[in-house]
Amino acid sequence: MGSLFNEPSTDFHLKLNEQLFQIPHELLRKNVKLVQRLIDKESQGLNADFQELNALLAENTLDQDKVALAKLGELIARVDTFEKKLNSRLKEDMQLLNRIKQRVAFFQELEDAKNLKDQSRLASWYQKYANLLIGDYLIRNSRIKARELNEDVQLEDDKSWNPGVIFLKQQHLDDLLDHDILLAANRISKSLTEEHDLNPLIKWIGENRSFLKKRCSILEFESRLQEYVELLKTGDFRGAIDCFQQFLLQFMETNFEDLKLASGLLVFIKSCEQPSKPTTEEIIDPQIIAGDEFSKESNLVLKTKADVHQHFFHRRVFKGATNVTDTFKFSHLTRNMNFARYTDLLNIKRWSDLSQLFLKEYYSMYGISHLDPLLMYLSLGISTLKTKECLHGTEFLSSNNKELDHYIHSGVLRNTCPVCSDEFAPIAKELPYAHHTQSKLFENPVMLPNGNIYDMKKLKMLSAALVRENLFSLKDHEVMDPIDKRIFSESEFVTMYPT
Amino acid sequence: MSILLPVLKLELDKLYEDGSQEPLIHKCKEDTHEFKTQLKKLKAHLNKHIHEVEASTGINNNSNVEESKKRLRRRELVVEKLNKAHRQWDHSVKRNCKHTAQQHTRINKFLNHKMHEFDLDLVYVNKLPPESRANIDRAISFHISRYNVGNLPANGRQEIIQYLNQVYGITEDISEKFVQMGQIVQDMKQGDTSSCVKWSRDGSLLQFELYALNAMQLFQHGDVLQTYEYLTENVPASAFKYRQLQVITQVSPLLTQLLLGQKIDDLEEKIQLQLNKCISLFTKEYCSQNKLPYDSALFLIILSGVISFQFFIKYQSIRASAHVDWTTEDELPFDVTLPEFLTHFHPIFICPVLKEETTLENPPYSLPCHHILSKKSLDRLSKNGTCTFKCPYCPVNASKAKTGRVNFVML
Ligand SMILES: [Zn+2]
């Protein structure tokens, strides 16, 4: 129904992109809450002011009236500043509503193209859709750069820029994605993984404490623990102890084991001076391995008990206190293992884990998928296109006619399959094939004596083209097999019935 | 037909004041403004009152009792009005705010109940390996070079290559493929078709469409004489030879209108359409001439992913109700019907006996009756070539010796 090339319905698309409405709407609600708070505060203040004013006016004396007049002046100034605040909220509201409006229009475009059965409009809609996914991916993953070049591109945020945002602007799609939200996440995450700076994260936690509490998130604990560890690393014991007392003690009940470990580190840090070397792990994109850490980590080989132990100890902190008893058994078994727990705390990989934890919380707050949508589409799309013939190039026999070979190999037999392209072939290797229950061949299949089966019409057209382009002279009713360049007569065609 | 979209529109419309483009909370702002004006006015009244009282004291104590009574009443009125304005404002903004919040709650319900159906994170079953990052970046580089190179604030070969590298990190081996295309598209967008004309082949459709575009642009600038001259003298001779019909339908009306001094309706829009037509024709020709794919691999894969999504979701819901696990075989557990333009890359032959796609290890074989089977089923039927067998599709007998390996080739 209403489908031109088996694409999903508009409603399916809407559901798929629910977050395009969810996010600005969430922001709108936040804005209204701010307005509500503003009004409540103002209303209270004005009530008090009016009481005072009325008391003054009740005296009904000239002197008090004069005081009341001054009071009224103050009151007006107060209403005036309130109006200004309200105005900026209103502007915000307008912008967000506009975003939503544009998105509704975007999906209306899809609906229109489908209703009009306009294939080229539909194709260009999917162009935009693909560009949105690419913009999203770039905003999430590209490094945010300090603004220096490109004076031509106007950005609201003039301190920094990101290729994703620029791409969306150049494609006139910037209203269709909440780039500010994604960019903010990227900024905090990169400050962790690249600058080892906790401040932006801690600031964010402070602003969203009630949300994190509701989710029973361990993000705050983990970031304070990291702060503590970093202080210890620099030898600032005083600062570390302060941090412990001020921020970590409150987690005594929920994370007692971790606190024990943390205080142990205070004593043993000197003995752990050599934290595990920074490895290639750092370069691994955490987005891609997320959810599959155990099998995909390049350097992770769980051969010995110690390895297992180390791995799980490291993980344990993130997975809550569920396997405390297990780990206890371990530490009784092997005493020297205890050091692994400490060096784990010092491992710089904790930064990317912390960033992952943050991103999960952040995205769930807006109802956004924390895995890149682009990667999902790619994974699904590659498998859908991947046939058993993909990834092994066909072998051609070259002739001694260079021009002919060029014509055939770079034109006629050129494989344009996206899965077989240089970029995607390596990715496609590990992914499943498409599932087919029916053959998808061509019309009028004819077999040549060499076993090659072609579409008869196309084979004849090719031969005609070779003659026309003066690449090869063929007699009437002769065709050339483009693969082995042998010449056959049409009378040798064998019509095939591949069911 | 979409059911959600109209409802969504309707609900969102309620976030605006009735019949206006102003958001609901705009009313709060208006009320406040009105309140402020009222206060100012009343302040002026109070001020006047104070002045009058001051002026009247000491001059005439007893003469005008009436006057001072009147003043008093007026003062009372001011006080009353002040309080009334305050009450009204307080009531109105609170009510409005509550109303706005209610509408947001409604929309939130709608979004959560009607629009929320699947969890995207659950779709990502076969995760891409970490090494694929670099390849994805290359695919994106190719995509951006292909589709965005005409939108850059850069000009000239070196500058464009440099821009793509600095902003998007695209390496020269990719960007140089599209740099000429981008330059020409940019020229066209700026109203200069000369570089494209120079590029186009003599007698091509592109050349003709460019000629029409040029004429329209000259017409827009209002230089009648120049346009006329261009139309009559610059017409490529080949345009007449091959495209008489197009000349008649596209150029002649223009010429007539020009001669009659008529205005063309929505000329601006028509020029834009013609420009887009030229750009798309040009990019198509450019790509085919330079043996570049017209659509980037990334785009085609995303499109396949989008089409596949609905099948995936369907499969997933069946799986959930039947408690089956994701099949760990090397095939997707569901069949996706893709459009022809996404399936013409490789021939797909399903062995009619085994119902499996043939592979290098299990290639197709032809029988004397011109039916085709996979090697595996052939071996099975012929008991590894030890006996003759009947084709499963017709009564013709075959022996393994009479079969031959075949190879499907898509042209
Ligand atoms: Zn392929």
Q: Can you offer a commentary on this structure?
A:
The complex is a heterodimer of chains A (499) and B (411). Chain A is mainly alpha-helical. Helix content of chain A is 60%, strand content 4%. Chain A is built from 21 helices and eight strands. In chain A, β4 and β5 form a beta hairpin. The longest helix of chain A is centred in the first third of the chain and has 54 residues. Chain A starts with 9 loop residues before the first helix and ends with a strand. About 13% of the residues of chain A have low confidence. Chain B has 411 residues and is mostly helical. The two termini of chain B are 38 Å apart. Chain B has 14 helices and seven strands. Chain B has a three-stranded antiparallel beta sheet with strand order 3-2-6. The model of chain B has no long low-confidence stretch (mean pLDDT 87). In chain B, β4 and β5 form a beta hairpin. Classes of the chains: A mainly alpha (499), B mainly alpha (411). Chains A and B meet through α1, α2, α3, α4 and α5 of A and α1, α2, α3, α4 and α5 of B. Bound molecules: zinc ion. The site of zinc ion has 5 residues of chain A, from loops.
Describe this protein with a few key phrases.
A: 499 residues, mainly alpha, three-stranded antiparallel sheet, two-stranded antiparallel ribbon, 21 helices, 60% helix, B: 411 residues, 7 strands, 61% helix
